[in-house]
Write a structure and sequence with these properties.
about 475 residues; alpha+beta; seven-stranded antiparallel beta sheet; about 60% helix
Length: about 475
């Protein structure tokens, strides 16, 4: 790559493996040997369960791997011990299953070694960093080395893309799409990048692809209708959103209903709770209601009258609060989890467009600025807190020490800011767990750092003494 040593990318690759192993050690120290990284351990183990199917029936393995011919019978036969394989139809695509599928392929040559799995995913995210560097280097006034190492060392991006989770696949998908748009490669090469990027984003983080498409649509208005004029572009976008909401009320209601249900599910996970199957009904009990139940392994019996939420598994219909009376029936436990230490109360959306709008400030504060020092959570929250304020400080300084931009640079900055805003809003609306927010928002923080690097004057042209004297 221009301006960088041949040893740069290998060094980054080794750094990322080291960070991934550090993540592993942190979780051992924090949660114990059986809690690799919550999702990370589950993905690795369930990938092995799926891989083992191949030895019993290659045909059934490929049916489960591709989803073509997958059935309840196959799941019950081979994957009944899994937690994440089946999650209902809350989303069109179960991206957790796709991470399990990826790990099942790696298991063919990994020998069940976490280092091999980690190395493969770190390789993907290292390639992603290369794509981002190639895509943005000509739009920044910083030296090649400074620009590259800053984007490598963005803490949340470095941390989460050096893991066994979805983030390395997401990072690679975003980078390929960015490269296909900004780099003048051969047409055939750009088409391959676009197809691969959309494939990865749909499989691993579909809502991020939605945010990218929203930002590209906004760019079309900003660039073509108003020749990169900010205020008229924003006014037009607001009027357009309002008009579409009125014209497509049914579709809007479905979106709001989906956000309401996603928020409800996150709140249940954050608070902790017990989900049981009672005949054809599913009930959700909060921890303070456990005293009304007899819990013996997977068998649950209602002992005292109790309130609960009734819902249809996998449905986006609003859960209904019901009052239950003991009848001696034995219910089956379907999901049970302790509450999250970093859970924070959020305002319920309650299927209301007006409430969704009212929640915008709260959503942006939660997803962009928090955690605060007095927020719940472990001591690790202070690392996130430091990163948040470093990113905000860097972004503020880049505005103060901004340089004159050309039209292309303005267009890129506008697109990245719309992406950051839309992703932050979506995360803030639905996620009441600050630890999860820290993980989900890393693409937005990464985008803000890129914006700052494009805006900022060359570091050696900034007169720091005059600024602070």
């Amino acid at each position: 790559m221009d301006g960088l040593s041949v040893w740069t990318l290998p060094s980054v690759f080794l750094i990322k493996i080291g960070v991934g192993l550090l993540l592993f050690l942190i979780h051992i120290q924090t949660y114990g040997i059986d809690e690799l990284s919550h999702d990370g351990e589950t993905f690795l183990n369930e990938g092995k369960y799926l891989n083992d199917v191949f030895a019993q029936s290659p045909k059934h393995y490929f049916q489960l791997l591709t989803g073509i011919g997958e059935s309840t019978e196959l799941i019950n036969k081979y994957l009944h011990m899994t937690q994440y394989w089946s999650a209902g139809d809350l989303t069109i695509i179960n991206d957790s299953k796709n991470v399990i599928r990826a790990h099942s392929i790696i298991h063919f040559f990994s020998g069940n070694s976490i280092v091999i799995h980690l190395s493969v995913l770190c390789l993907f995210s290292t390639i992603a960093l290369k794509n981002f560097y190639i895509s943005f280097q000509k739009y920044t006034s910083q030296t090649y080395i400074v620009f590259f190492w800053i984007i490598v060392l963005v803490p949340s991006a470095l941390f989460w893309t050096s893991s066994l989770l979805k983030e390395p696949f997401l990072f690679l998908g975003i980078s390929l799409l960015v490269r296909s748009i900004l780099v003048n490669d051969k047409l055939s090469k750009r088409l391959i990048y676009i197809v691969l990027s959309i494939f990865l984003l749909i499989l691993f983080k579909p809502y991020v692809l939605v945010c990218i498409l929203i930002s590209l649509f906004c760019l079309l208005i900003y660039k073509n209708l108003f020749k990169s004029k900010l205020i008229p572009s924003l006014i037009t976008l607001i009027v357009f959103i309002f008009s579409m909401s009125v014209l497509f009320q049914t579709s809007l209601n479905k979106v709001i209903n989906s956000l309401t249900r996603k928020q409800f599910d996150f709140v249940n996970v954050g608070k902790g709770g017990l989900h049981v199957l009672a005949n054809s009904n599913y009930y959700y009990f909060q921890p303070f209601q456990y005293e009304n139940l007899s819990i013996a392994g997977n068998e649950i019996i209602l002992q005292k009258e109790s309130d609960a939420y009734k819902y249809r598994f996998g449905s986006t219909d609003k859960p209904i609060q019901v009052h239950l009376v003991p009848n001696g029936e034995i219910w089956q436990r379907t999901y049970f989890k302790k509450g999250c230490a970093s859970f924070t109360e959020t305002t319920p959306i309650k299927n209301s467009a007006f409430q969704l709008i009212k929640n915008i400030p709260e959503a942006l504060v939660n997803s962009i600025i928090r955690p605060f020092p007095n927020d719940p959570g472990s001591k690790l929250k202070f690392l996130s807190l430091i990163e948040v304020w470093l990113v905000i400080l860097f972004f503020g300084l880049s505005i103060y020490f901004r340089r004159k931009l050309n039209i292309n640079e303005k267009n890129i900055i506008f697109t990245l800011l719309i992406f950051t805003f839309s992703l932050s809003l979506l995360i803030g609306w639905t996620t009441p767990v600050l630890g999860a927010i820290t993980r989900y928002r890393f693409p937005a923080q990464f985008a803000l750092v890129i914006v700052g690097l494009i805006l900022l004057k060359p570091l050696n042209h900034i007169k720091w003494k005059n600024t602070f004297s």
